[in-house]
Design a protein that fits this description.
Elements lengths: L8 E5 L5 H11 L12 H7 L3 E7 L2 E10 L4 E9 L8 H15 L4 E4 L6 H5 L17
Parallel strand pairs: 4-5
Antiparallel strand pairs: 1-2, 2-3, 3-4
Length: about 140
């Protein structure tokens, strides 16, 4: 088997991914809830039912992901962008965002938004996003 340093990074759209890889990404991002252990099959839908799902691969290993929810006609929301911890800070997240934008624009999506975690807006601003002044993100709660 090749050394990781000799493997080429590939950023591509995908329609399926192994649950094991997705669980690792979600756990390392801090998104994994204990209740998910009982029904991890929801992960199949996250990949398959996203308008665009981008994976970052070293060889066959999924080391990063990002996805967009969209009607693929006008609006899209980018979410769930994360990279395995050992590969963070190497520009992989940037490449995932760029690939998502390319795919969305290729479908003539003209409004692309996201909700950034606190302290990360400058990363997204460097990629062409701007803070929506006078707008507040809201979340439905039960």
């Amino acid at each position: 088997m090749s050394d990781q340093k000799s493997l080429k990074l590939i950023i591509k759209t995908i329609k399926s991914a192994s649950k094991k890889d997705l669980i690792r990404l979600y756990k390392e991002a801090g998104w994994w809830e204990p209740s998910y252990d009982k029904h991890p099959e929801f992960l199949n839908h996250i990949v398959e039912d996203s308008a665009v799902f981008v994976g970052a691969f070293l060889g066959k290993r999924l080391i990063g992901m990002g996805r967009a929810l969209s009607d693929l006609a006008s609006d899209a929301y980018i979410q769930d962008v994360t990279i395995i911890k050992e590969f963070r800070g190497k520009g992989i997240g940037r490449k995932i965002i760029i690939k998502l934008i390319e795919k969305l624009k290729g479908n003539n999506v003209d409004w692309i938004g996201l909700v950034a975690q606190p302290g990360t807006s400058s990363f997204y601003e460097e990629l062409g996003f701007e803070v929506l002044k006078d707008h507040v993100p809201l979340k439905y709660k039960d």
